[in-house]
Amino acid sequence: MGNSAVVIGGGIGGLAAAIGLRRIGWEVTVVERAPVLDDAGAGISLAANGIRALDALGVGDEVRGAARPQYTGGTRRPDGTWLARMDGAALERALGTPIVGIPRAALHRLLRAALPPESLVVGADVTSVDRSDPARVLVGHGDTVLEADLAVAADGIAGRVRAELFPGHPGPVHSGSTVLRAITEHPVDLRSDFEVTWGRGAEFGHIAFTDGRAEWHAVVNSPAEVRHSDPLAEVRRRFGGWHDPIPALLDATRPDTVLHHDVGELVTPLPSYAVGRVALLGDAAHAMTPHLGQGACQALEDAVTLAAALAGATTVESALMRYDAERRPRSRSVARAARQAGRMGQQLTHPLAVSLRNAALRIAPSGTAVRMILRHADWTPPELT
User: Residue 339 is part of which domain span?
Assistant: First the structure.
């Protein structure tokens, strides 16, 4: 079995895959279409499964050092009434680590720092993945063709490689939600590490960072491709009357930093995450809604599992069969749970249904939230040797 790979996409999943492959002795080239790595993005929460995957990749300590543990917070109503509290200390006792919050840009930089600079090719849009030779795969970008033993498609929810591999698959669909988010320009006085507030067909949440700034996100039910000339003003209109610290978070935000994305997902599961010598990873394989905060964690699990499968196999094809068998059932289960969480949480609009949900949350035993998180976060990575 050879030991050269091309990773298509330099996001969290692609970089993690490259790190994992290098840890088992492979030569890796990451091809990223963005011409400039400006590290755009807001914030991200990483549960224990994501942190454990980063530990297996050898970068867990660096990420912990740049992240803020989420010990306090929970779920509220727009008037500020608490529906459920989060017990980060209980999660830490159960899993060895609390959930942590980190800017996406910081996570990207830490992952890139674990790779030699020459392994990353930027401004290169992959135009072809040639699988005609059963012994090699050819990845073309511009006038360049890279020959490798393995190609890893980590090119996101709209990636073209998945469409090439499965031309009959319907592809991603709009989930019915759109998200606006930003990081505050300066520190904000916050009383909790993480919060989510549910209204009718709307959600507002924040993640606190180590420097006192915070990421906030506003998710609303909306048709796809609806855009606003002043996104921050639209968020103020929808959420400005909600409880503190939501107005303060918006006041600390520059209008030109607000990002707006429709939430897509792969509702129709793929029949496989591997075809020949090509593996699909992260959103390219199982794009899910953000309602469980598991998207990046599942991509990190993919990266570690792929490297471990290759380390213990005699052929690339057998390794990818093992990778598919291990990852597809779990990631599909998490994606279904995320979709259901959105329907019962942010997307719920009927007043009676909202009242019943809120009442159920208030009377639920204190350990219910911890057990729900444990369902998806309690994952042990394979060892990379």
Answer: 4-69+101-172+265-345
Specify if 84 maps to a domain. no
CATH of the domain at 52: 3.50.50.60
Separation between Cα atoms, residue 120 and residue 204, nearest integer Å:
36
**Does residue 188 lie within any of the structural domains?**
no
CA angle centred on 254, ends 251 and 258, rounded to 5°: 105
- 38: buried, middle or exposed (CB in 10 Å: 19+, 13-18, 0-12)? exposed
| Model pLDDT for residues 189-246, shown as the tens digit of each residue | 999 999 999 999 999 999 999 999 999 999 999 999 999 999 999 999 999 999 999 9
- Tell me which DSSP letter residue 118 carries: G
The number of folded domains in the chain is 1
**Would you say the pTM of this structure is higher than 0.90?**
yes
Return the H-helix or E-strand segment holding 6: strand 4-8
Residue type at position 221 = N
Across 55-68, b (16+ Cβ under 10 Å) vs e yields: bbbebbebbbebbb
Find where tokens 């906030």 sit. 216
SS3 168: coil
d(CA 33, CA 199): 38
